[in-house]
Amino acid sequence: MKDLDITEVARRSGVPASTLRFYEEKGLIASIGRRGLRRLFEPGVLERLALIALGRAAGFSLDEIALMFAPDGRLRIDRQMLAGKAEELDRTIRQLSAMRDGLRHAAACPAPSHMECPTFRRLLRAAASGSTEPAPPASGSSPGARPRRRAEPPPRRS
Fold it and tell me: What is the pLDDT confidence band of residue 26, given thresholds at 50, 70 and 90?
């Protein structure tokens, strides 16, 4: 495959040319020359851009992604860093799941006011303390403390 100019790399990768230039400044990718005023890249840059996109989607910073490449451009991914990011994602998923469950409860809660609902009050206390995970329900809490399931299934689409 022949060398690709920046326009072709942008088209094939979906990464804007301005981002490609930024990645080059950061040392994440390297051009191999110019054709007129346009930068040229080896075809392997597309795979490297896919790895950068994967890292970004997983929540890695560009600096962390840069550490995943050896000075000669080959991959050298630190497996401990991957395991650490996986743990971080697990924590985020737990927090978001707790928040989702709390919002669903608040939307369907039978309490006359959200301020009378023990579950909603726990969510408020958790938010005030900086935690996004509500405390477990107190024993003997009122019926409004549990999330309720929908009484009827959603309508079917045909």
Answer: very high
